[in-house]
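queue> holo job accepted (dinuclear copper ion)
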Amino acid sequence: MAIFPPAQRIWWKEPIERSEILWITIALVWSLILFFMMPYWHLVGEQNLSNEAYRIKPDVFAERTEAMADKYTVREEGDTGTPVVHPPAGGDIYMLARLWEWWPVLELEKDQTYRLHLSSVDWVHGFSLLPENINIQVHPEYEMVITVTPNRAGEYSVVCNEFCGIGHHTMVGKIYVVDK
Ligand code: CUA
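queue> job finished
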């Protein structure tokens, strides 16, 4: 901030300095390169998910998730007895975010395709699938739907990556992928 007015009052009519034009050009070109890299990596680098988003009421989403869990729970685990749900391959599966858990635990079959629905019933949470590089912001009132085909058997962690309060660091869910 200047205390005194500039010597040239009509400063915006001054010719632009050469070096400044150079920097503006570099910044513009670089921003365009980065901009077009987004669709480029999506198409060529198989990065950035093709996800869909729909409006949904939190209680409707909770109902659907519970209906799936009621039908396909195969066992329970942990101190809280979280259901481990093994839904039929090829169908719609649900994972719900709330303070402070991902519910339920899902058990999927390797090389099968599922429609994974994600939503929150309270706050904004972040779905971060480890060790894969998949990150999705999960909002209440919206469901994110991604088509997934797990290609490696094992145990995956779902870590919340949006700060959601005092229990944020404990908000860890699980997805098992089993070989059939
Ligand atoms: Cu949920 Cu942080």
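queue> The mean pLDDT is 92.
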